[in-house]
Amino acid sequence: MAVAEPHPAAPPAARRRSGRLLPANAARWANWSVAGLLGVVTLVALLAPVLAPHDPLQPVGQPQLAPGQGGFLLGTDGIGRDVLSRVLYGLRASWFAALLVIAGGVIVGGIIGLVAGTFGGIVDNVLMRITDGFLALPAPVLAIAIVAALGPGFVHTLLAVSIVWWPFYARIVRGEVRALAARPHVEAARLAGAGTFRVALRHLAPGAVPATVVTASLDVGNLILTLAALSFLGLGQPAPTPELGADAARNLSYLLQQWWIPTMPGVAVLVLAMVGNLAGDAIRNLMEDR
């Protein structure tokens, strides 16, 4: 009697996408393509002065022209400034501000997490209790309070958000370091006479990099929305400097008639947040496939 052969297991190098199995190469190329959107947005932000057809601060046409009229792709605002130029410059400010805050959070939080995870004991307890104190407070509310104390301004907004953003990375790095500290190769390095700082820099810190990179990439979208929300509340760039959240807030009175004036900056915020989240997922998948 013939014995039915079991169904072959799904290839391990395949990834599920919407109920289907994608070959490993196709999934990898898809992830690289999506992750590459970060580079595309960064390039657009760098080239904003070249790509913008007009000066974003000066009126260049009739006020309130609809998209496509008078040669203005996204129309003009209430005083005749090119909306496309303002969106490009606002995208530049929001994108680099998000990257700057994340870089600061990774550096500060990474150092604190590395020190706490490496030394343990009372050092770990003290640093993590400080971190928990920051995490216990609602980050947006704390950022608003800091900006209110320092005064409105884009630099103050970045400083306020940076102050409340590092604890997440401290927790992540500390957890990764504590897990790595019990690995055999770290114990072998200690037995071979490696000092604490050498072990931390050569054996513990590199192991925390993948989780930190994935978290940072997923954080881009959240941070852009946070910065846009603070600017929307009037805590960002002062007028007439172009900034996506501030431009959407200042032009809300046009929403029902000249909808494109406040909507285009909002759409740009949405696109940046989506790119950040999708690219973060792609980078996570690429890290898992290694």
TrEMBL record:
GO terms for biological process: transmembrane transport. Residues 91-280 form the ABC transmembrane type-1 domain. It is a multi-pass membrane protein. Keywords: Cell membrane, Membrane, Transmembrane, Transmembrane helix, Transport. Its main location: membrane. One of its GO terms (cellular component) is plasma membrane. It comes from the Bacteria. InterPro entries: BP-dependent_transpt_permease, MetI-like, MetI-like_sf. It is found in: Cell membrane. Belongs to the binding-protein-dependent transport system permease family. This is ABC transporter permease. The lineage of its organism: Bacteria, Bacillati, Actinomycetota, Actinomycetes, Kitasatosporales.
